[in-house]
Here is the input.
Amino acid sequence: MRRKLAAGNWKMNGTGAALSELEKLAQTPATSQTDILICPPATLISRAADTLAGTAIALGGQDCHALESGAHTGDISAQMLADAGASMVILGHSERREDHGERDEDVRAKARAAIDGGLTAVICVGESLAEREAANTLDIIGGQLAGSIPDTATGENLVIAYEPIWAIGTGKVPTIAQIGEVHDFIRARLERRFGEGVGRSTRILYGGSVKPDNAAEIFSVPNVDGALVGGASLKAADFSAIIAALDAA
Ligand code: PEP
Here is the structure.
């Protein structure tokens, strides 16, 4: 009942030359059950929309402001992202939480604004290595979910990405059992707060060093509905291989 989702987070990488990777990605055969999302830097969204016109590949932002417009130098609103061609936006990525001090309540306000602006909010949660080693992972994730998800969330306008901070960009990946435990926990928390309908229809992605050679194993885990991919989404060949693994799972 849930469509799979392969989401690429380009972070602060890519100028116009990177659009050639999207041209290659557009050659990926369309799949019946897997949605594909690329979140390039905001400067590229509009040109990426032109490049991907006529394909099923969706575009997203990497952050948005909690307000629609105003005196907020350097910020970008959900309406601006949508106007440029985005249909989704990543919110509360650990790099935003760390680099910009974003707290759960900030993420929640941004997610509410994204949903009001017609975007799907991809809300990131994840524990640090110290938190995992102290056996606090589920407490941390539970708190982030409670604090970051707005009450207006539905299975259509919300995606959760579980991204252990220690796995992002490091090549370290949790065990299958660890991923499964957290994804089952997230599903249960969504069902408890929003009811079975929303809880079961919300997609839960895993993110953190997903590569072509580990993707199939990760996608075999129950309640893993796809991936949020950083480094391996920058090259169309790698991202296509991950999409193929997801489609086959
Ligand atoms: C990310 O930044 O969301 C991410 C998962 O990065 P990487 O795939 O490079 O670990």
The longest helix spans residues 176-194. The beta strands are 4-9, 34-39, 58-61, 88-91, 120-125, 158-162, 203-207, 226-229.
